[in-house]
Amino acid sequence: MALFYILVFPGFLFLIGFALAGEWLDRKLHALMQNRIGPPWFQPLADIIKLSAKEDTVPNGADRTIFKLMPMLALTATVVAVLYVPLWSKNALNSFPGDLIVVLYLLTIPTLTFFLGGWFSRSIYSLIGAARALTQLFAYEIPLLLSVLAPAMLANSWSISEISAFYAQRWYLTPVNIIGFVVAMVALLGKLERVPFDIPEAETEIVAGSFTEYSGRLLGLFRLCVDVEMIVGASLIAAIFLPFGLGAPAWLAFILYLVKVEGLIFLISFMRTIMARLRIDQMVDFCWKILAPVAFVQLVLNLVLKGVVQ
Amino acid sequence: MSYEDIPVAEASPALESERLLQQQLESAFSELSGKVTIQRVRRVWVEVTMDQLHPVLTHAKDQLGFGMLCTITGTDEGTHLGLMYHLASDGGVVLTLVTTAPKDGPGPQTVTQYFPHADLYEREVIDLLGVRIQGVADGNRYPLPDGWPEGQYPLRKDWTQEMLEVGKEVEP
Amino acid sequence: MTDRDVIKVPLGPQHPALKEPGNFILSMKGELVTEMGVRLGYNHRGIEKACEQRSYLNDLYLLERICGICSHSHSTAYVQAVEEIAGIQVPPRGLYLRTLVAELERVHSHLLWLGVAGHEIGFDTLLMYSWRDREVVMDLLAALTGNRVNYGFNTIGGVRRDITDEQKLEVLKATDTLEERTKYYAELAGHETTLIKRLKDVGRLSKEDVLRLGVTGPTARASGVSRDVRKDDPYAVYADLDFEVITSDHCDVYGRTLVRVGELMQTYKMIRQLLTQLPDGAIAAKAPRKIPKGQAISRYEAPRGEDFHFVRGNGTDKPERVKVRAPTLVNMQAVSTMMKGGYLADMPITLAAIDPCFSCTDRMIELRDESDTACGEYSWPALRQLGISHHRALGIDFTELSKKLASRRDRV
Predict the structure, then answer these.
(1) The Cα angle at residue C271 between residues C265 and C277, in degrees rounded to 5
(2) Structural domains of chain B, with CATH
(3) Which residue among C37, C44, C295 places its CB closest to the CB of B143?
(4) Cis status of the peptide bond prior to A10, with omega within 30 of 0
(5) pTM given for the model
(6) Facing residue for A207 by CB, picked from C16, C195, C197
(7) ipTM, 2 dp
């Protein structure tokens, strides 16, 4: 039964399906907002199937092992992360004190694989993309950590399931974390490398950044990984900042969960529709000078609040 | 065709500024008298020798307000090559300095020190007509590809495309 | 700084930022560009040489194909020179219609630029919107001239098609729509934070540099230099039109955007004037087949800057020499000045901001195979044969299909 949970529902298969649906939703919304028609519902799946039918090429001079290993590592890390995030019940599939840190760590791995994969491609565009991916990681990771740290402190727990349960019981405390929610959403855009933070894969400058040399199945895995990362990231934010309806009957909670995640995907699409790509220096400036201090305000606020509550 | 074929505009009050330009040029360079032609309003042509090119060019740029070099047109005149430096002023007047260069000997000095944007214009007449402009800085050729055979100047009248294909094997 | 710190990033000949081939080698230290090398000529097609081998009328259509975006610019610049040599008086209605298409072309070119600029800075929404609106003017051009690009509208002595009263109304209606949309973009350019962040202080070019480097068109006007052939050296009917030359003192890409959007508004004004003042009468004068001896210079304010044509006739039906200088050739040489000390990320938009058109700039091609193994030149039939045998080796064979098609043709 545990194997079924992990492999089929709500584990691997469900996650992949949901991720592809999420990508479609993102692309469709983006297209509609841009006055386009957008792709049909099966397009993301068709893309993956097409990519897996194509030849994998490894550039001359690239480190073959690392080059081929990185996409798998990236996908594995994101898929594992979902086990610790409560989706529509109060408890995640697997949970232990401190799993919040583990999830954040697991969600960092894809970026590191983008870096390593790009670095060992030995292409000039991949190299620049890799350097940018890492620079960007240092810029958004701190605000993201701070923004989820604040609610965790108020809930007095490092376990996502417990945090979720805490806020589900005290729904009136949820609006307190609104600043953290905004910061986390912006940081998630950086993590997913979406406009305005798609700097590491800025098409008009460095072709596709780290992914320039990737093709076939390997590229398919990377793309799948980004899709899954979007779902996991959105689920994490939903679990921490929007813990409504967790106690409802399973079917209702499930629908609520879908609505929440899709709402967040809408926000992501909306942001990338209305903005232009920033420059890496502007991005780092923004993250350190605005995003991090704002996240810090949330932290102080929650510290004070905690003192008052106790 | 020779330079004398340019029709000379009728005298009219509309050409006052062009006539003034003609006087200014002729008074600054006595040897230019009779060589300045007013074709029509805002079109003035001057015939200069290769040696006079630089003094007239700098005079036009610094004293007469011709700050823009529109382009350099190269022509094949049969026995020699023709070069036209089209200068434009902010008032819309185009002053064209017409000069000649030998087909095999050295051509005029580069004008990039006065007009940096003349660089590609000069490379173009070098590549397409084989004008040997002196003092051109090192750099990429323009516009022909790097492997272009020596001594082939496509815009010369005796050049045909067949000259390129003679003796070349075509891949099956 | 050692050589190890400097990386060389090639942009092109094929690169997503470039819509046409050109090669730029950026020497970079980190994200900063220290030096830039340019190699052009990939689009050279020998049009100037080809012009000498064709009749004046054929050249008109050839020159129109120098560039798809500013095709009317090149053909107008050329016919103006030919008409001057031949002493042909174009009827006023012909001149008005020629100017009308010229201004419509400016609308479509500037809207296209706006979209490309958006795309270069990762703002695809702007691309989608402005290109959607561009369809309005493209449809209009198709209705007036018969084609969306390469209009074939000009002929020596005038234009080839007249405009009906219904079409006049259609143009006016479309102009209103476009004006409203352009106002929206002007507002957007003034408010959208990420857009301004990416455009302001990028690709700076001072007024002195503009004058020194002979830059033309919107690029020059965005640095406060009021340089516009339509005002300075009026051609067609621009002397009768009431319009302003839009300039800006920003000296950066943002200024170039404002100038282009401002110019669009002026263009709508001009289109209305052209239609209300449109005189009756013939649209073209008869032109002789043989053009007398003589030479003429024609300047034209294309959407990208000054287009310069020189034509020399020798008394036959073929010109002695046709010389084309497109605005990009001169503006391109200012890009390295703009890029010095800039970020890699700003390179695409800086380049795009001069609205480059390499097809216009280069004009000749010799087909050459420069790969390591095979080196040779091909004539057209040989190239075609090569293509057929290459695909046949891959198992793609159209021999049977061609036979079948040929037999079907015979039966009919």
Answers:
(1) 140
(2) 3-109 (3.30.460)
(3) C44
(4) yes
(5) 0.82
(6) C16
(7) 0.85
